[in-house]
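Running low. Invent one:
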Amino acid sequence: MTESQEKVIILTGASRGIGQAIAHHLLSHHHKLVVISRTHAALDQLHYQYGSDQVEVLAGDLSDFKLGAKAVELALSRWGRLDALVVNHGTLDPVKKIADSSAEEWRKGFDVNVFSAVAVIQASLPSLRKMHGRIILTSSGAAVSAYQGWGAYGASKAVLNHLALTLSGEEPDVTTISVRPGVVDTEMQREIREVHHGAMSAKDADKFMGLKKDGGLLRPEQPGHVIAKLAVEGGKELSGRFLSWNDEALGKFQDE
C-alpha cells in the first residue's frame, strides 16, 4: 500500500465490540488510527500489537467535549492530516420508561451519544474538508423503531441520522454516512440480557434472549468491516444516508 492510500482516522469507542473490529480491520490494512475509549488497557493492546507508527491512544470520556479537539490535534501533530472520523461510542443508559426517568438522566445519555459526537465532528471538520474526508456514524435500528425503556437511546441515534443528513447538505466536501449495524454479539447485548431486561417489555427481552440462544447475533466483524471500509472509500453518493450494514447499496463493502 502506498503512502497516498494510507488514511489517518479517528475512531471512538475502539476498545471493544464493533469498535475493536473496526480498529483491527483498519490497522491490518496499514491505516493510521487515533483510538479513543474510556478504558486504556484495550487501547494499549492495539498500540502494542500494531506499533506506535500506526496507533495513537487517547483514553478519556467523550462527554468531556474537549477530548474531540485533542484527538484532532493528536492526528495532525503525528501524521499531518485527518482523512476520516468514525463515531462509534455510545451508551444505552438510561434504560427506563420515560415516566420513570428524569430529564437529567436523558441529558447524561445525550452528553455521551449526541453532544460528544457533535463536539468531535466540529473539531474534525476543518481537516476533513481539506482531505475531502468522511464521517461514519454508528447508529442503530432503535433510531427508527421503539423498544420499551430505550427512549433516550433511540432518540439519540435518530439525532445521529439527522446529523448525517444535515452534514451532507452543509459540508459538500465531506461524505457523512450513518450505519445501522444490526444486532451484534457485544458487551452491550450482554448488558441488555443480564442487566436491562427488567426495564424492557417481556416481548422485547425475549427477543434479545432468543437471538443469543439461537445464534442469531452478528459477529462484530460483520458490520465492523463494512464501517471500516466506508471510512476509507465510502462514495459521495452515500452521503446523508442511513443504511443497514448489509444494505445492497453497501454490497461492495461487505465481506464475501
In short: The radius of gyration is 17 Å. The beta strands are 8-12, 32-37, 55-59, 84-87, 134-138, 175-180, 242-244. The domain at 3-181+219-245 is CATH 3.40.50.720 (Rossmann fold). The longest strand covers residues 32-37.
